[in-house]
Amino acid sequence: MNPKCHQADSDIVHKGLAQYPFQRTKLQQICVGFFEWPSEKTDGYILPSIAERNLRRFANLRLTSSEVGMNLPLHEIPVKCPVSEIIKSRRVQGRECYEVSWEGMDGLETSIVPADLIESACREKILEFEERKAQRKKQNIQKRKPKKKETNSSVAELDLKLQNLLLDINLRDEANFNASDSSGRISRITTDTAEADLNTTDLLPLSHDIEHSGVITDKNEIFKDM
Question: What is the mean pLDDT of residues 174-199?
Fold first, then answer.
């Protein structure tokens, strides 16, 4: 809001504001009567301008104090800063801005104001905002970074699993080797037995022929010589 006859920080405007303090309900009634605005539109359109006007008055107060050699910290200034805190940085139509929350502004929680206005009125709020942002960034990095103890535990667990896997492989290979060796032994024994039976079977007809031919009268003599 820019008065046509007087500056927003002029003495006359200050006296008028002191005599007629801001009344939100009264303002809503005026806007309904003249513009047919609902109360939500009045709050959304006018309250941010009033809050920004109060911040400019506060910035002019700090500038005047510094000119006379009174560079007071923000918390020592008799007039309370209207900005509660900076929420986040914004860019509006290429201009650097901040979204801020307001102190004691009935009906208005947050709005966007130019960054240069915050710099001149309450640069301490910018420093607090940057510190909070750096702290949040640091916490996020710490959350993403794995703990060294957990990493060592994971490596030890993986090493144990690999050792158990190698042990199982060795046991299976040994079992397969023993089974193969046993099969080979059984096969050799079976083959030797079959060959012995075959030799005995071949000798029986020969013994019968020799016996009938009269060459050998006793069959036991054949096997006695073997």
Answer: 60
